[in-house]
Design a protein that fits this description.
The protein is an all-beta fold. It is 2% helix and 45% strand. The strands form 13 sheets. Strands 1, 13, 15, 16, 19, 20, 21, 22, 25, 26 and 27 form an eleven-stranded mixed β-sheet that branches. Strands 2, 5, 6, 10, 11 and 12 form a six-stranded mixed β-sheet that branches. Strand 50 and strand 51 form a beta hairpin. It is extended and about 120 Å long.
Amino acid sequence: MIPVPASPPHPPLSSLLLPLLLGLTGTSHERFKVNQPETSVSVIAGDEVILSCSIPHQSQKGIVSWFKDAKPEPQLIYSFNGSQFPRVTQVKKNNAHLIDYSIRISNVSPMDAGTYYCVQVRKGNHGMKFGSGPGTYVSVEGRKEEVSQVQQNEISQTVSTGETITLSCTVPDTGHSGPVAWFKGSGPNRKLIFNFKDDRFPRVKATADTSKPGNTDFSIRISDVLLSDAGTYYCVKFKNGKPNEYQSGQGSQVFVTGTVSWFKEEGPKRQLIYSFNGNHFPRVTQLQKTVPNQIDYSIRISDMSPKDAGTYFCVVVQRGNPAMELMSGPGTHVSVKGAREQTSNIQQNEISRTVEMGKKITLSCTVPDTLPSGPVAWFKGSGPNRKLIFNFKDHRFPRVKATADTSKPGNTDFSIRISDASLADAGVYYCVKFVKENLNKDYQSGQGTQVSIVAPPSLPMVLGPLERALIKQAVNFSCMSCSFLPQNITLRWIKNGKEPSTLRTQVIKLKYGSDDKALSTTEMVLDPKDFNSHIACNMDHPRLPHSLHGKTEMTDTVLAPPTVFIFQHPISNDKINVTCNVRKFYPQNAPLPWLKNGNTSHIDEVLIPTRHRDGLVSVQGFILVTNANHTEEILLTCQVDQDERYKSTAKAFLLSPHLDKS
């Protein structure tokens, strides 16, 4: 994902750094060395810390940024591109052989403890290349006065348009009483974002109940993020009756990203030429220029042909359902002057094709009849691992057919049509010419056509905990969907028709081969009211006309142990009716066993439950006991078994009894 320069720009490294930190930390390619001399530093809360980093002058140029190894993904701390980051500044040290990328973090708090990585990213022949220092661990020793400061955990966050962002804020209850508010920006022109009092902020909600006594959590959640939401957000504490702020958090920088792509022509003839999403496009590469406070989205198209003539547009697209074009350049018209030798080249007209799953793909190829005689074949991919797709000779390619009769004399059309497109068909396709004298070596190849497959996701599946849980216990729910393209998917949790602001949600995107999976997890504390509740996962995707829903009933998760009582009711001088009263439990498990001195003696098979409004049930069991003429004492137990894990019992001592089984 590439950020849109509607706000202080930054490179899209946070989404790329995760695999680096997991497995590529300390990459040591030749002339690609990042020096982080300190393995650890210690700082007192409230002071500043300097994190050192340098790169040799002779290293290839690339983008350098600092990240903190945080969960669920690394957190961007600073980028050397002119952007402003709260509390973080560059520290320059003079060295003839090294370029200094050290930073200073001021007003350090315990929340800043962790491992920080200095990372360089540059574009290589086969995608992005990383170089990272070994990391510097920062430990923070707290002060007593630290507990009285407003704390904002995140220095910066990156979010895509249409998604939801959570900004954390802790306001200690040891300070002066007074309201708390969130602002975007600072100074006299700052903008009020949320005030925890009224409902005039439709996209902003508190994540906790701030009216509870002793509450210190004043975090907020902003939904349906827009490009205009980019900026620095401050959590501010006021004193009652005082208009001026009493204390402010350090600020959290929010970056908003959109998708930038190049298209040829407008309207129904529009053709995707290049997208800054890491995919490979034949003949098209990114061209990076160093422009202060700007991000460069220039592209280079190689091996131009007359087919490439037309108008090209650089477009910013906002993620969502459906995707929406936000802005476009005025267009650049490209004219191509033909050359005589052009007629002797294999031509693939389309740089890229996008097709829906299950539809047909037509890939064009013109092979001039002026070339030496020999076969033509189509391949997916390049190099030694490329895959043969079609060879115009046999029938072992059931989904691929030629669009023209290639056996006709003078034929130059070697286009193919692939039916029933699947996600596995995504890739780059090459039309290749061979000569009879050397069938093991390509004589000439087309420029390649990038095929992208779009597919709606599967119906979301909601999974609760493996075992039932008690009231007031925290449990996790998971929602998964798979087999979708493009990747911009949104999962939202709904409880009883409403989106709860108190749910802590995490969305993880996984990729296995050509198959994408989205997994959302949320944590919920079970409440007595949940017996009549359900939780649903709503999913939005550009290929869906409406949201898909998956849900589960809370009754499948909740476990409520009963209260059990035993009552004795004498019927006559020698008979006692013993009642077991099992009150307000769930789920209902029948039967109800009676135990005599620890051994099962009788089982109530038929129980008529009483159902309460809150979803809980109560039952009663009975047993008749007859007195004999001896004084042996026994222990009579009524037992309730729940979920094979919990047993609730009530016991009574009786003199000289035996069970009446008649």
